[in-house]
Amino acid sequence: MASRYGQGLLGPRRTEHAVPADHLAALSLPIGDDGVVVGNDAEGRPQVVGFHHPRPYDVVLVGGLWTAQVLALRLAGTGARVAVETGRAHVWTNLVQAAGAGQECITLYDVGRVPPMGPTVSSPVLVVRDCGMRPPRGRVASMPWQSVLTLLPYLSPVAPRLLRGAGLAGIQRVSPDEAQQIGRIMQLPQQDVDALSTLGDGVTLWCTRRERSYALTQPTDAESGLLGTARRLD
């Protein structure tokens, strides 16, 4: 099911342009929305998630570190500043060094030590919270132009609260019991609940309570050289 997660800015007011009706078929766009490509659907169409919003925006990913790191790289590639709050800095160090190219586009912080980032429309921020099964309440919350992505390796006691408060959830392969719990929280059809325990590595169900879209994340050569192939388990 195609969906629209991105929330783009209104562009500048300019004189309208018109084209003859018989020229419309020649017009095309490379992707269906603004944001970052999280993967392709079953028909090979890019699936795009907009992480930058003029309002607080929280995302929960119940999945693997590999996918979270690909998203961090791609968000940094769009010009966003990425702050990673983690208790396992060693698994992020190579990525940070490779992504920086002499600039601090991705920075690491200990749990609870992320400083105010000062996000703006021209300098948006993504905070990645890689804080284990029971992430503490963060000192830095989502705000306009600063989204927060919380990575949960599995469903935990704090997951229902986080999922209910999220604007978007990404669900990778989970156990059948976890799939049933997620299905109730996110109001998923039974066919999607059944599918969650069979998803392949790199496949994510991106969903809200109204929209759903499966995406297979295929790494670029640079991403696979740095992070390896897609994997659900760290």
TrEMBL record:
Domain of life: Bacteria
Name under which the protein is recorded: Uncharacterized protein
